[in-house]
């Protein structure tokens, strides 16, 4: 296949990637970044292999022919006693060896895209906190890192676990695929593991009938809502963190939806009591009265786990936010 055809084909492929990203950005389609990245690895990897096996040897052969022909011509002219014009043969050789644009934008990017894919899929993935459901632990605008292998190694896109590691523990801050809409990633705190009876009654958390220890702290001022909230130090699973309560919000859970295993939950004016089924987890936001979590839409299946959140690596509005959290 000649260079003109490859240039046209590559232009179409790159336009498809740009079109997908633009449609996703404009909300015309529901994007999947993991799938997009996987496709980018496959496409650029195919170009990289073709470059190493076919295109690069072709360019090198053409460059060698050019040098050989130039040397032969120079020798023939010398035998004829003719002074040859000066030719920058090295510049011409380098031009032949240079990658065309369509390889530079595909094969040339493959190593970088592959590294990003491996890091994001199996090691660490960055996320941005979009809402205040985890205040005061995490604030809107926090850029966090998520450990992708802490709960086991999973295949990208399909999210199937292929290697087990730690099991989620009470108190962990977990990123997971939102059960009603798995294309969305959510972040909450694990409060119940399989077999636990989790109760949230009159704004007090109970695990297996035992109240979770909490102590009152000075009120917390939320600059986003410009309101004060009751703040508590809570201890769960050996982790110490802070939670918020809004005294003006009722204890009962309004607006619940149907979800799998909802028969394991009992709702009342005091709150909710749920028994966590096998292979599922119960998660809540630290901003207890401003968090849509397992109280409203149900349990998180093990298959929906993405990773354990552990570090704020940047907040452009407040650099003091950088650091580890529990």
From TrEMBL:
Active site: 133, 188
Location of the Peptidase S26 domain: 103-314
InterPro entries registered for this protein in UniProt: LexA/Signal_pep-like_sf (IPR036286), Pept_S26A_signal_pept_1 (IPR000223), Pept_S26A_signal_pept_1_Lys-AS (IPR019757), Pept_S26A_signal_pept_1_Ser-AS (IPR019756), Peptidase_S26 (IPR019533)
Membrane topology: Single-pass type II membrane protein
SUPFAM superfamilies xrefs: LexA/Signal peptidase (SSF51306)
PROSITE patterns named among the record's database cross-references: SPASE_I_1 (PS00501), SPASE_I_2 (PS00760)
Top EC category: hydrolase
GO CC field: membrane
Gene3D superfamilies: Umud Fragment, subunit A
KW Protein transport (keyword) present: no
Reaction(s) catalysed (UniProt annotation): Cleavage of hydrophobic, N-terminal signal or leader sequences from secreted and periplasmic proteins
Keywords carried by this UniProt record: Hydrolase, Membrane, Protease, Transmembrane, Transmembrane helix
Localisation: Membrane
Pfam families linked to this entry: Peptidase_S26
One annotated GO molecular function: serine-type endopeptidase activity
Membrane-spanning parts: 7-27, 33-50, 102-123
EC number, UniProt record: 3.4.21.89
Similarity comment: family membership: Belongs to the peptidase S26 family.
Protein name as catalogued: Signal peptidase I
Species this chain originates from: Tepidicella xavieri
């Amino acid at each position: 296949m000649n260079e003109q055809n490859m240039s046209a084909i590559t232009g179409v492929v790159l336009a498809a990637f740009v079109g997908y990203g633009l449609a996703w950005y404009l909300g015309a389609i529901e994007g999947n970044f993991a799938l997009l990245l996987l496709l980018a690895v496959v496409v650029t990897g195919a170009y990289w292999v073709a470059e190493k096996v076919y295109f690069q040897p072709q360019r090198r052969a053409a460059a060698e022919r050019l040098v050989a022909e130039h040397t032969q011509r120079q020798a023939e002219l010398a035998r004829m006693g003719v002074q040859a014009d000066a030719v920058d043969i090295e510049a011409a050789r380098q031009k032949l060896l240079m990658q065309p644009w369509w390889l530079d934008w595909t094969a040339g990017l493959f190593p970088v895209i592959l590294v990003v894919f491996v890091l994001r899929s199996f090691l660490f993935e960055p996320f941005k906190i979009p809402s205040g459901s985890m205040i005061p632990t995490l604030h809107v605008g926090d850029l966090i890192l998520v450990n992708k292998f802490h709960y086991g190694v999973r295949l990208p896109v399909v999210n199937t676990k292929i290697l087990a590691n730690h099991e989620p523990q009470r108190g962990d801050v977990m990123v997971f695929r939102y059960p009603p809409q798995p294309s969305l990633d959510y972040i909450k705190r694990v409060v119940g593991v399989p077999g636990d009876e989790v109760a949230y009654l009159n704004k007090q958390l109970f695990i297996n009938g035992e109240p979770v220890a909490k102590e009152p702290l000075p009120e917390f001022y939320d600059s986003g809502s410009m309101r004060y909230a009751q703040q508590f130090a809570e201890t769960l699973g050996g982790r110490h963190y802070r939670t918020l309560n809004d005294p003006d919000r009722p204890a009962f859970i309004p607006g619940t939806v149907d979800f799998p295993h909802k028969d394991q939950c009992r709702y009342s004016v005091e709150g909710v009591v749920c028994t966590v089924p096998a292979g599922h987890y119960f998660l809540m936001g630290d901003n207890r009265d401003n968090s849509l979590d397992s109280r409203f839409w149900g349990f998180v299946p093990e298959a929906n786990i993405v990773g354990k959140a552990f570090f704020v690596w940047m907040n452009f509005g407040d650099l003091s936010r950088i650091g580890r959290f529990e």
